[in-house]
Structure prediction request, 337 residues.
Amino acid sequence: ITTANNLLCALIDNHLHFGNELNLQKIYFSRAVDLNERALRSITVGKGVNNGPEREDGFLITVASEVMAVLCLASDLKDLQQRLSHIVIGEDSAGKLVTAGDLKAGGAMAVLLKDAFQPNLVQTLEGTPAIIHGGPFANIAHGCNSIAATKLGLALADYSATEAGFAADLGAEKFMDIKCRKAGIAPNAVVIVATIKALKHHGEGDLLKGLANLEAHIENTKTYGIPLVVALNLFTGDSEEDKTTVKTFTAALGVETIEADGWLNGGEGMANLARAVVALCEQKSQLQFLYPDEMSLADKIRTIATKIYRAGSVLIPDDVMQKLQKLEEAGFGHYPV
Prediction:
């Protein structure tokens, strides 16, 4: 992914050096490196004799690369090439968006990624198969493993579990509204994982106060119409009183909390949770997206901010609104955000 990302950067600079036929004036796409190298976040490239033109650039960590997100949303190699070609690299002098496809970079990038597109099969300590593939940052991308990996898991087992990182706002919202929408899939059940230590941290030492955080995640999940259960991830310092408090609290919300003792007892400690999930999967459910495709990008942002993050209102500055309108004019308006 790092190499494919930087191939595109090299093609951009090569195009600028040899005449800039596309008349690129603003470059959005950045280089990537597979570690957090703070000193390279803002650099100048093109310095020296016959290396220009000189311009400001920088390195992202690879998991923040758009190429990572693209690979994880692609359904096959043909779709991967098309998505890579749609990456916006900048603007020309007239303000028109220029893509990787305009540089004819999609095919070369896809060739570099043809093996990386294959999911990785590993196993747990108990020999349970696990598929690990992709890791786009949830704070700037969609925070889910690849569609290819998820569909492979679904094809190989009666029940397949996948992670949507960063809780029921950053993680589950993007899993539902981006990944499920684009993959044409829907979960049969949702497991919200909580720990007593984290809940107390949210409440500044007060478990009851911290449970408001869990309540918000339960409410967010219910928005999508999928049955859910809370998995209380146990550790040796958890008291019976605290465990009962959590169970009583979620029961009042109509949600069962199951003790998950995998940390101490492995798969055996997760058996009750597994049985609860199987029971939930037997219930009828219908995934309800937070917003329709045809909603404007600005309204999609407002919907997510108010319904999931509980914002009172959303102020979008004029320059940001202009960028959103430009994206819609370029044909990106139906995309999830």
